[in-house]
Design a protein that fits this description.
- The protein is an alpha/beta fold and about 210 residues long.
- It is built from 8 helices and 5 strands; from the N terminus they run E-H-E-H-H-E-H-H-E-H-H-E-H.
- It is about 60% helix and about 15% strand.
- It has a 5-stranded parallel sheet, with helices on both faces.
- The radius of gyration is 16 Å and the shape is globular.
- Bound molecules: thymidine-5'-diphosphate.
- Thymidine-5'-diphosphate (TYD) binds next to helix 1 and helix 4.
- Thymidine-5'-diphosphate binds next to helix 1 and helix 4.
Length: about 210
């Protein structure tokens, strides 16, 4: 079972995913919890290049390909082996982040990005995706107040982040089977309870 958390910057995914990991582990599930880009030796090196403030002149196409390269490595080296063993994989961002940030954010041709993602992931798709929805202004303010590292992507203009959020909402509305939208502007414990509730009902429908 492959579960992803998606959302604009400052939506609180990182805290929520670790709480979900604890919750599932306590219930006896074997869980792999990771983040993108990163989580492989090669992926962490790519992450450094992507996030480095010195790389101000990185072209959006270069950026897109680097995210895809890190992901291709993660799929083969980590995700597939865990899924083949029957573990639950919980991932903080995946291919939908590239659709939202590079596709909708940079306004690239969405079909082209979709093909690129298919190539990078070998067609591996999540079973369930949570969209932690928050308005970008609130999200970026949370980040600046110390909710995480301030990276090269955060520095893009607010309109960019608004397109990212709209992109997420569009994708989620187009495929409600896979996507569950959760209002992440609320207190973290309230958000966590809703995530757990949705997850438990999803898991019980499978058994
Ligand atoms: P990170 O510090 O992990 O932020 P967050 O806690 O918000 O996930 O930085 C990841 C940044 O990279 C974030 O701004 C989203 C962006 N990103 C893309 O633009 N495309 C992608 O495919 C991925 C995975 C992330």
């Amino acid at each position: 079972m492959f579960i992803t958390l998606e959302g604009p910057d400052g939506s609180g995914k990182t805290l929520q995913i670790h709480l979900l990991e604890e919750f599932l582990t306590a219930r006896g599930y074997k869980v792999f919890c990771g983040r993108e880009p990163g989580d492989t030796f090669i992926g962490e090196q790519i992450r450094q290049v992507l996030m480095d403030h010195q790389n101000k002149n990185m072209h959006p196409r270069t950026e897109t390909l680097l995210f895809c390269a890190a992901r291709a490595q993660l799929v083969e080296e980590v995700l597939k082996p865990h899924l083949e063993r029957g573990d639950i994989v919980l991932l903080d961002r995946y291919a939908d982040s590239t659709m939202a940030y590079q596709g909708y954010g940079h306004q690239f041709d969405l079909d082209l990005i979709r093909s690129l993602l298919h190539f990078a992931t070998g067609g591996l798709r999540p079973n369930l995706t949570f969209l932690l929805d928050v308005d970008p202004q609130t999200g970026l303010e949370r980040r600046q107040k110390g909710g995480g590292e301030w990276n090269r992507m955060d520095a893009y203009v607010l309109q960019y982040h608004q397109r990212v959020r709209q992109g997420y909402l569009e994708m989620a509305q187009a495929d409600p089977q896979r996507w569950k939208i959760v209002d992440a502007s609320r207190q973290p414990d309230v958000v966590q309870s809703e995530l757990r509730e949705i997850l438990l009902s999803y898991l019980s429908n499978l058994s």
